Amino acid sequence: MTWLDDPATLALALPIFALPLIAFAATWLKYVLPVFPGDGVLLLAFFLSGQGETDPFYVFLGAALGGLAGIALSFQIGRRYGTAALERFSTRRMRRLRVGERLRTLLNQHGERILLVNRFMPVVRHVMIYGAGAFGLRRAPSLLFANVSHLAFVAFLGALGLLTAGTWHEIRQGFQDLNRTVGLAVTAVVIAWLVWRSQATRWTQGPSAGAPDID
């Protein structure tokens, strides 16, 4: 059993200002160390605030500021160390297939818009901010779109934690199920959009673009 399984005992020991600070730390760590269970901690903070522990607005504010700081740091780390890390860990086969070049092209064309829904996408969301920095996306649009996505996800967690009737265990399980469903749906839409954009680009360029005419 972990502390997430019995939050009531923890809540009794917390001062009133603790939940906003926990929300800040959880969201910051989630971006810097993606393996940290920040979503569960933030959901718990909203749930406890709904039980009268503190004003939910301050929990939202803490999460918003934590995401702002975490996103900025992750982007900067990617910008500073990402290229060298990609070179170091890429295999010969990846270099032969020009995986890095293909990813760079894909992100340069569509990465900033993908960041608008990044927070709802499983797996990808853990590395997307680092990738945006590593592959040279524009700083201002990347940070703006990533924060829009982050705020939407925080609002999603807040709605579940505050408005969903039930025990903590029921809300936690409902979040896991709903998050998985939404994540798969958003990922499918993004993949379909990328395929459509790729096909539209090919049609615009023409089948023989860049190739010599043959009589």
Topology (SSEs and partners):
Elements: H1 7-13, H2 18-32, H3 38-50, H4 56-89, H5 92-96, H6 99-114, H7 128-134, H8 139-163, H9 168-205
Helix pairs in contact: 2-3, 2-4, 3-4, 3-8, 4-7, 4-8, 6-8
Treating each run of at least 4 consecutive H or I residues as one helix, how many helices? 9
Number of strands: 0
Provide the β-strand percentage band. Answer: under 5%
- Biggest beta-sheet profile: none
Summarize the structure.
By secondary structure, the protein is an all-alpha fold.
Tell me about this structure.
This protein is mostly helical. 74% of the residues lie in helices and 0% in strands. It has 9 helices and no strands. It is globular, with a radius of gyration of 21 Å.
Structural features:
215 residues; disordered C terminus
